[in-house]
Amino acid sequence: MPIVKKKKRILVIDDNLSFLKSMRLALGKLGFDCQISQTVDIALELLEKEKYEMIICDYFMPECDGKEALKKLGDSYPEVKLILTSSYPLDIEFKKSDRFTFVDKLGILSWLSEKYPEVQYV
User: Fold this and answer.
1) H or E element: which one contains 11?
2) Dist CA 5 CA 119 (whole Å)
3) Strands (E), 39-80
4) The pTM is what?
5) What is the radius of gyration, based on Cα positions, of the chain?
6) 71: left (phi over 0), alpha (psi -120 to 50) or beta
7) Where are the chain's structural domains?
8) In this predicted model, what pLDDT tens digit does every residue of 57-92 receive, in sequence order?
9) Other CB atoms closer than 10 Å to residue 44's CB: what's the count?
10) Is 13 in contact with 68 (CB distance < 8 Å)?
11) CATH topology of domain 9-116
12) Three-state secondary structure along 76-112?
């Protein structure tokens, strides 16, 4: 009988729907089980119902910036790895926080495939 690996579950939060759909497709091809949300509040509702190993959240969103998202998500779900992303540069002091990881949006897929090589089923 073949060994079936459990897919890592990721929740991606971004106000850009095109980016979310692209991420869901790309992460699925890498072997992740991906759910998407356009707001932190909707993401919090999803987190009440489902467990995720990782949250990838855009830093610059209209209703909630990265610091607010970090507080809401990090304080409510400290066991979930939180990764903040942005297409814009962030100051170096903020990047050094130990409560989360910051990864540039353009490099997120290569970072994930290097960090979690076991999820690549393709």
Assistant:
1) strand 9-13
2) 8
3) 54-58
4) 0.81
5) 14
6) alpha
7) 9-116
8) 988 888 887 778 878 887 788 888 888 888 776 664
9) 16
10) no
11) Rossmann fold (3.40.50)
12) HCCCCEEEEEECCCCCHHHHCCCCCEEEEHHHHHHHH
